[in-house]
Amino acid sequence: MNDLTVNRQTFDEVMVPVFSPAAFVPDRGEGSRVWDTQGRDYIDFTGGIAVTALGHSHPELLRVLREQGEKVWHVSNAYTNEPVLRLAKRLEALTFADRAFFANSGAEANEAALKLARRVAVERHGEDKYEIVSFTQSFHGRTFFTVSVGGQPKYAEGFGPQPAGIIHLPYNDIEAAKQAIGPKTCAVIVEPIQGEGGVIPADPAFLRALREACDTHGALLIFDEVQTGVGRTGHFYAYMDTGVTPDILTTAKSLGNGFPIGAMLTTKEVAAHFKVGVHGTTYGGNPLGAAIADKVVELVSAPALLEGVRERSAAIKAKLAELNERFGIFTEVRGKGLLIGAELTSAYEGRAKDFVNAAAKHGAMLLIAGPNVLRFAPSLIIPQADIDEGFARLAKAIEEVVGATNEAHAK
Ligand SMILES: *Cc1c(COP(=O)(O)O)cnc(C)c1O
What we know:
Order of helices and strands: HEEEHHHEHEHEHEEEHEEEHHHEEHEEEH
Number of helices: 13
Number of domains: 2
Radius of gyration: 22 Å
Bound molecules: pyridoxal-5'-phosphate
Strand order of the largest sheet: 4-12-11-10-7-5-6
Distance between the termini: 52 Å
InterPro entries: Ac/SucOrn_transaminase_bac, AcOrn/SuccOrn_fam, Aminotrans_3, Aminotrans_3_PPA_site, Class-III_PLP-dep_AT, PyrdxlP-dep_Trfase, PyrdxlP-dep_Trfase_major, PyrdxlP-dep_Trfase_small
Binding site for pyridoxal 5'-phosphate: 106-107, 139, 224-227, 282
Structural class: alpha/beta
Number of strands: 17
Shape: globular
CATH architecture of the largest domain: 3-Layer(aba) Sandwich
CATH topology of the largest domain: Aspartate Aminotransferase, domain 2
GO molecular function: diaminobutyrate-2-oxoglutarate transaminase activity; identical protein binding; N2-acetyl-L-ornithine:2-oxoglutarate 5-aminotransferase activity; pyridoxal phosphate binding
Largest sheet: 7 strands, mixed
Helix content: 25-40%
CATH class of the largest domain: Alpha Beta
Strand content: 15-25%
């Protein structure tokens, strides 16, 4: 091995081709700016897909990473550790929950939640109560159980027989939910805002109806807050602004600001059905990840930070409205806090990716949420100056796509 020169092309030569990364290769980041390996800078509106809630290279997180890194990284779950106990206490003080299970990702947190719900139903009601209710277009991760529960069949098909006992209902359809949730239902799992599915907020009345139906039929209500959690909506968890409290909440993404960590939060009564040895993980709750997440939770839960999320949300929505006045490319701008989706008009059907590519060319990082929606999930502390600069770059990118489209039509 003598040539270790790598670039974007190397990806296609050495990686399992499940991703199609951008043409540029990020090299370092600071706050809401990222520099690629060529030294070009980008305004980061992606936050690593709703992960880097405090931006890149946050000085307090760097300090914790260094301090805990020099103490101990990993001890296994044969031992506990102080950082994970502090993190659990902090989350419990902030939420409805009084028990936590730590994992390494959102999918694993959901896997734990779904297994726990099945176990609770079997132990409390018997073998016939196993049905999991989920919603079309939902996303809950990429393990086999979570893609089967998720509402996008293309992620679950082609892998052989799927786990049984899962039904999918239309999102925000109260009548369908009332009819389908019954004595066989063991759990309902729902995103308070569907993230990957297109940034689609749940109606508060829909969430209340799910809560009621679950209570009537002894089913557990699971909120998947992997994307909406940890300050993203301007509330520490989205459920806090809905008037509905789940029995189980899953959280990951922003929880570690990029250090892989996920958690399942629940009540003491529900947690009691997971006994020693019933579920587990090697890395979950390791002291390094827990110490970082503890600092993230401390900083993000500050009321001033959450207020700042709501202000930045308004600023970005105003910018999007301006762009739309100029270019008329969006049918709707929706979402909450710093999880914002802008749906393209039919003239740009299926072309969200073209806007993302053009944005990259002009120095802005942007996400899609399905083929027709541009998604913004930046750092929760993105400075106004970066919002301004990012939107100036975005305007140039949009001008280019719109111009090329009009030219193509004129021909
Ligand atoms: C990203 C996401 C997941 C999966 O999280 P991973 O860390 O990628 O496993 C699950 N649920 C929702 C709502 C998500 O947005």
